[in-house]
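are you around this afternoon, could really use another pair of eyes. what follows is a protein written twice so to speak, once as letters and once as structure tokens for the fold. i want to understand how the tokens follow from the sequence so walk me through it. anything you notice is useful, everything is just below.
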Amino acid sequence: MRTPDRPLKIAVMSFAHTHARGYIELLKNIPSVSLLTSDPGEHPAAELRGRAFAEHLGIDYVDSYDELMAWQPDAVIVTSENARHRADVERAAKAGAHILCEKPLATSHDDGVAMLEAADAAGVILMVAFPVRFASTFARLKAEYDSGQLGQVFSVRGSNNGRLPSERAWFTDPALSGGGALVDHVVHIADLLEALMGAAPVSVTAVTNQKLHAERARAETAGLVTISYDNGVIAAIDCSWSQPDTAPTWGGVSVTVAGTAGTVAVDFFGPRARGLDTATGLPIEEPYGPNFDEALLSTFIDAVCSGKQPQPDGRVGLRTLDIVLAAQESARTGRTVAVSKG
């Protein structure tokens, strides 16, 4: 990671997304970064949010976004509810700050386009938080694909399964999240496929249900999405919140890429130490290896210092969002749906 000539001022907008904590924990340990946060508004009583959360993490905090922007940050990380991404990105862009936006980019195509336009007009970077593409295992998969070792790839099977994200109630409120498991999990695999193949999605067929966590969620909790690409590849993605609450880990991301010369399967969060909790007898798992979020933030900070747009950019975010929107329409109508081309 490049070291800036002066402390880099990075602001975090909102503690709504559970990923905010991970980003903050990493940023506060970087000597060249000055960190300021804000999480205004009314929050559910059961959730640790706002100033109390900042004090818990030991980080500086202001009560409003106006104060946050008055600090004149060099960069902003947007970790608000999905439906609020557009307003927060537009505010940050207007303040002249480079932006890392949590996934998905937005909850509608029009909002996504407006966010790209705001960043372009302000001349600032807009990057989307897809950390899995920074895994060394993905770099090896990409190298094998690019060198032709897999032959002609014809199908990909992907899964991004996890627990119901109950730490934050808004995840299962479509008015704030834009949907359920489709919105939360399809975009990670869609980003990996874009980075791997560079192919354009053509059409999507999706089925969903709400059998899992039916009493707790207001959106789909399980889904299977099939995507056809313009290079002939067909990808199937299981995006379900299918991990039980008692599972020893949150979930995982994996892909199996099949070609005429070979097949490669990658479990991106596979390396774990496994054992039993001696007090409860329940299984425990502790991941080890590189932190993908650290690589994501390092890339973003390097880009802020250099002024060069990193990947994945807002246009990648918009294309992956369009896959989700097509999947939602397909699940709703029972038809195969063409993916928007712009």
Remarks:
- The chain has a mean pLDDT of 95.
- The chain has two domains: 8-131+302-312, 134-292+321-338.
